């Protein structure tokens, strides 16, 4: 009996010893380096001399030309070759927020310069896309098969496509470097407003201005000037951007409307400028615009309320609410509702897979995982600095429990899951090999510059049942379904397509997990 009791006591230790290597702990600093590298694979335009993803080359060099504007640069959003303004701006906002909160940890890891370069690649494009105070280009797409989109050179391809017109691109499997057709650029202006697009772009510019305040003050000032103009444009000429750029409805439809982006932009403008006008805007409009009313269980490129509520809760903890304290307390309560829902201690809790991953939808579920986990991470540090606790329906919760939750989500992504699969390409030994991504799935232009036509790409490369010739290092793919199942197949775009906005929030979490708290008050100015 005594031997049996000893064996039982040793069981937890034995389990730890025999768990797969994926469960033995992760190299968060390595994962951070890889996740930043992914953005270099998404670059559009003229690539710089220090480009580290060497299988990519220049692309989209005529974007904006047909509209008489230079829109070369920026990011392709996902696995296509399209530049969508709303998710690109959100990507920049979240990368900037990651640096604002955890730039010191990134610096200790030697990645701060790479992270700020990734932000600047995006903001350089956003500046080009905003040629006049009340004009903003929001999409660049092929006009060939379906209604056109915006013709913008630069920026990031959002995912694995090369899209201008999303439908046209999705009929075309081609490297970005092979795009020869003029792409259509779509804009918003006073006659065709888009408060959500302009508001998110204002937020991106404002957030980015903070990280360049010391290293490049002139550039920081320029970004803030654009942010002021864009917020005024968004607030003065109200409307949903997908009512003006109607082709966006099939890809990045604005379900939540624009009130959340107006509050989101105001919060970032206040953080960037300390201008009381934006603090008052949050106070006066919080109730009427839903900031204090919406109890959220998601956060992402479309729905920003949880992000606004988290930022305003921070302002409240910093003692900045003033006369708006009652309103800010209502924002704060909704922020806590979101956090409690994540850890299963709220009145309405977020769904999780049997393996413990947040699950919102089958198509690119990881976007919600990384965004929510980032909010949990920063809110945990805000509470710890405030020496407070999270007040949930199930009782008070220590800040460390929020951070532990975020860590569990990151660990799942990196391989601690029922399939022992890393959903970050290039991390670990078992990761997706057939990513739904045009550039990575076709032989590099530098290896074989022979032109690949749209249909040829489908016949030769898309249908090829083999690993991608180019490893899309650092990409976070869409991920498993509600039951932790995943099929590594190129045509399984719901699960194998990556996106820039999957990675952006992850930068901050990985920096925090890899570098620790840093021993400073998270409620004090960090940059």
UniProtKB/TrEMBL annotation:
Keywords: Carbohydrate metabolism, Cellulose degradation, Glycosidase, Hydrolase, Polysaccharide degradation, Signal
Matches recorded under Pfam families: Glyco_hydro_9 (PF00759)
Membrane spanning stretches: none
InterPro entries: 6-hairpin_glycosidase_sf, 6hp_glycosidase-like_sf, Glyco_hydro_9, Glyco_hydro_9_Asp/Glu_AS, Glyco_hydro_9_His_AS
Its EC number(s): 3.2.1.4
Residues annotated as signal peptide: 1-24
Active-site residue list: 436, 488, 497
Broadest EC class assigned to this enzyme: hydrolase
GO BP field: cellulose catabolic process
Residue span, Glycoside hydrolase family domain: 28-140, 163-510
Recorded catalytic activity of this chain's protein: Endohydrolysis of (1->4)-beta-D-glucosidic linkages in cellulose, lichenin and cereal beta-D-glucans
Gene Ontology MF: a single term: cellulase activity
Entry's family note: Belongs to the glycosyl hydrolase 9 (cellulase E) family.
The protein's name: Endoglucanase
């Amino acid at each position: 009996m005594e031997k049996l009791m000893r064996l039982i006591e040793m069981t937890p230790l034995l389990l730890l010893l025999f768990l797969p290597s994926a469960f033995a702990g992760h190299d968060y600093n390595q994962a951070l380096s890889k996740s930043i590298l992914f953005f270099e694979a998404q670059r559009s335009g003229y690539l710089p001399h220090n480009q580290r993803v060497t299988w990519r080359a220049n692309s989209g060099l005529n974007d904006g030309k047909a509209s008489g504007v230079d829109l070369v640069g920026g990011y392709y959003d996902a696995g296509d070759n399209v530049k969508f303004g709303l998710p690109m701006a959100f990507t920049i906002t979240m990368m900037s927020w990651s640096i604002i909160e955890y730039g010191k940890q990134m610096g200790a890891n030697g990645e701060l310069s790479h992270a700020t370069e990734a932000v600047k690649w995006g903001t350089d494009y956003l500046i080009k896309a905003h040629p006049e105070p009340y004009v903003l280009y929001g999409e660049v797409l092929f006009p060939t098969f379906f209604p056109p989109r915006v013709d913008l050179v630069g920026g990031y391809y959002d995912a694995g496509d090369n899209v201008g017109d999303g439908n046209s691109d999705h009929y075309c499997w081609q490297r970005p470097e092979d795009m020869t057709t003029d792409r259509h650029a779509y804009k918003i202006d006073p006659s065709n407003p888009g408060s959500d697009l302009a508001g998110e772009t204002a937020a991106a510019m404002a957030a980015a201005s903070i990280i360049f305040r010391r290293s490049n003050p002139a550039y920081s000032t320029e970004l803030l000037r654009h942010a002021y103009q864009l917020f005024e444009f968004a607030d003065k000429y109200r409307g949903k951007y997908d009512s003006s750029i109607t082709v966006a409805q099939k890809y990045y439809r604005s379900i939540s409307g624009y009130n959340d982006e107006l509050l989101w932009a105001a919060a970032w403008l206040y953080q960037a400028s300390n201008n009381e006008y934006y603090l008052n805007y949050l106070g006066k409009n919080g109730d009427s615009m839903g900031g204090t009313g919406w109890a959220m269980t998601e956060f992402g490129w479309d729905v920003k309320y949880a992000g606004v509520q988290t930022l305003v809760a921070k302002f409240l903890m910093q003692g900045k609410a003033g006369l708006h304290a009652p309103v800010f307390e209502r924002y704060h309560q909704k922020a806590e509702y979101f956090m409690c829902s994540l850890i299963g201690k709220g009145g309405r809790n977020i769904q999780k897979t049997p393996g413990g991953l947040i699950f919102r939808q089958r198509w690119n579920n990881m976007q919600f995982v990384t965004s929510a986990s980032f909010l949990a991470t920063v809110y945990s540090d805000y509470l710890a600095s405030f020496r407070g606790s999270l007040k949930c329906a199930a009782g008070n919760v220590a800040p460390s429990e929020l951070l532990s939750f975020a860590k569990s989500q990151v660990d799942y992504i990196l391989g601690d899951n029922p399939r022992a699969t890393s959903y970050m390409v290039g991390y670990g030994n078992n990761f997706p090999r057939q990513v739904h991504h045009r550039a990575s799935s076709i032989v590099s232009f530098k290896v074989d510059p022979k032109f690949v036509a749209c249909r040829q790409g489908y016949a030769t490369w898309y249908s090829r049942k083999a690993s991608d010739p180019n490893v899309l290092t650092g990409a976070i793919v869409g991920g498993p379904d509600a039951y932790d199942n995943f099929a590594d197949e190129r045509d399984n775009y719901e699960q194998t397509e990556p996106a820039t906005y999957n990675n952006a929030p992850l930068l901050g979490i990985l920096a925090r997990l890899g570098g620790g708290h840093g021993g400073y008050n998270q409620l004090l100015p960090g940059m």
